Amino acid sequence: MKKVLLILSIFHFTANAQEVALYPGAIPNSKPAPNVEKAVTTDNITRISKVSIPTLTIFPAAKPNGQAVIICPGGGYAILAWDHEGTRVAEVLNQWGVTAIVLKYRLPDDEFDMDKSLAPLQDAQQAIRYVRTNAAKWGVQKNKIGIMGFSAGGHLAATATTHFTFKADAADKDTTSTRPDFSILIYPVISFDSAITHKGSRNNLLGKKPSQEQVNFYSNELQVTSATPPVFLVHAGDDRVVPVANSIRFYEACIKNNVNTSMHLYPKGGHGFGLNNKTTNDAWTDRLKLWLENINQ
Q: Which residues of 256-267 are buried (b: 16+ CB within 10 A; e: fewer)?
């Protein structure tokens, strides 16, 4: 009986999902090019590459609590771990009454983008505008819209969290706020400082020889202010891909600027554990659920 209920639950979740174009018209900062997006599934993870046409996949909560979370899957700015750090996360959030929106953001590529460093942030800011504009139809409150990211998706989410006064698309006339109301960062790339960054993410976004100005701009620990929204951080101390120093530096910057911040560090877990850090019976998702229940009070 439990298996039947589980299958029905998953079917209900999938059936209610809706994919929409992120932009109503032309995609900003893009070059004319064929769509060569590709999805490959191995080891129970679907990895999407060559994304040049951004979309939102919306999972409305059956019993909305007013909150929405935009999810940015990780993948080093080279692929998107679409289900592992996207749609499966949306399912969990839905169970809590949170409307979840998975952002298929453009992966930086000189073939598709005029300025590849700006494309992901443009998409994240547009996603926040889109959700805020359409909030009422999903039972979402406009002041309860957060952003979430894993690994390089965490870098994008952190960039959106700290750069909302920067207009990534200078030509856009929409005045809707792009400031997220809270931020959830799971084993995130935060800094582009050579000592602790994930070099693949930095190279894919900025190229192999970025200017110091670019490095500083996208080192999000340097961009925290007192206006930065509340932040929830998760990382493993033995992460050899994205050093835990990324989260620690961001946490310290938030504390320095009196930003409401909660950080959860685990001794083990490595990188990319998604929803389940198998090295511990302390579920970070349980801690997130409690945090979300209190963050807007």
A: eeebebbbbebe
